[in-house]
């Protein structure tokens, strides 16, 4: 008989919180600028097994001239729903070479799980919220919001780079120039 147990665990772990908003995934399965390709055909009776490789650009805006900041590179396989498993590989200089490992069903709506990462995002967990943005003749554009937590690993010198306005409705962003101060007990 199955026994599922969840035990509370109190542990203090320093982490960085990721909040990436207003990102747009260009899902283009049709036309001359396709960014995915079928590599395994489906079972003709069930439709199961279709496998598609994807290299979807993720941009800083929904317009055709928007800057590519990352790419969703991996596979999606039809198993009753489209099961996606891919790496978000960052191209923007600030995060270049870092990845988020992502899994989940469907493309257009819902959520994907962040199940890991590398580089600046090593061991990140979280969720990517997906919202349909625009239907186009060759595919669609999906708005992404990334929310995750990345533990600060021993020896990492990860520093915050910006803080928002302090208190009230006014103010402006400020750069933090000194390293974080750590309290030792």
Automatic annotation (TrEMBL):
| Keyword tags | Apoplast, Secreted
Pfam families according to UniProt:
Dirigent (PF03018)
Q: Where is this region: Disordered?
A: 155-185
Gene Ontology biological process terms from the UniProt entry: phenylpropanoid biosynthetic process
> What is known about its subunit structure?
Homodimer.
Task performed by this protein: Dirigent proteins impart stereoselectivity on the phenoxy radical-coupling reaction, yielding optically active lignans from two molecules of coniferyl alcohol in the biosynthesis of lignans, flavonolignans, and alkaloids and thus plays a central role in plant secondary metabolism.
This chain belongs to which protein, by name? Dirigent protein
**Species:** Triticum aestivum (Wheat)
């Amino acid at each position: 008989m199955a026994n599922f147990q969840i035990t509370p665990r109190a542990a203090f772990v320093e982490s960085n919180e990721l909040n990436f908003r207003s990102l747009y995934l260009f899902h283009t399965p049709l036309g001359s600028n396709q960014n995915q390709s079928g590599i395994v055909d489906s079972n003709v009776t069930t439709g199961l097994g279709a496998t598609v490789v994807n290299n979807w650009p993720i941009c800083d805006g929904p317009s055709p001239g928007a800057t590519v900041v990352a790419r969703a590179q991996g596979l999606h396989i039809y198993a009753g729903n489209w099961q996606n498993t891919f790496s978000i590989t960052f191209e923007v200089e600030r995060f270049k070479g870092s990845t988020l490992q992502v899994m989940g069903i469907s493309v257009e709506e819902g959520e994907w799980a962040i199940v890991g990462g590398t580089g600046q995002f090593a061991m990140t967990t979280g969720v990517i919220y997906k919202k349909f943005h625009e239907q186009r003749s060759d595919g669609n554009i999906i708005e992404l919001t990334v929310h995750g937590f990345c533990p600060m690993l021993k020896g990492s010198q990860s520093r915050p780079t910006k803080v928002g306005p302090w208190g009230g409705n006014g103010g402006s962003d400020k750069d933090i120039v000194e390293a974080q101060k750590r309290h030792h007990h």
